[in-house]
Amino acid sequence: MAFLLSGDAHRAEELTQQTFERCYRHWHKAREGDPLVYARRVLANLRIDTWRRTRREILTGPDELPQDDVAEPRAARTPTRTVDDRDAVVRALLRLPLKQRRVVVLRHLLDLSESEVSSELGIPLGTVKSTASRGLAHLRAILDVDALGGIR
Description:
The protein is mainly α. The chain has helices spanning about 1-5, 10-25, 25-30, 35-55, 80-95, 100-110, 115-120, 125-145.
């Protein structure tokens, strides 16, 4: 989750370490509810704090995304192709605005319900729904998903 929110392996490691440290210091609060939810909330808040402090995002340019001109059926994909597809999705996630990225990662990659994402990020349920919808539409536009569901 830290990597998907930050887009950088080193920053993700720092965020994870800071999350562990804050959870340890405030363990009495974390154990009152679900510690995993508490840790995810701390991680998301730390990422926001980092973004506010630096006010700049390093995004992957569109020319760095892999481009394939021929769509191939899902059954014909090799393990290498699956890794390439996963890499393309991660790169596309990094191109989403921070708010959309956070909602899409929590909702679809961590498989949280809309109400869980709403309470974890402290935003209204309607905002989660609309942000997730816009984020997925943006991802589709970035990835140019064809009718068969393959990535071009």
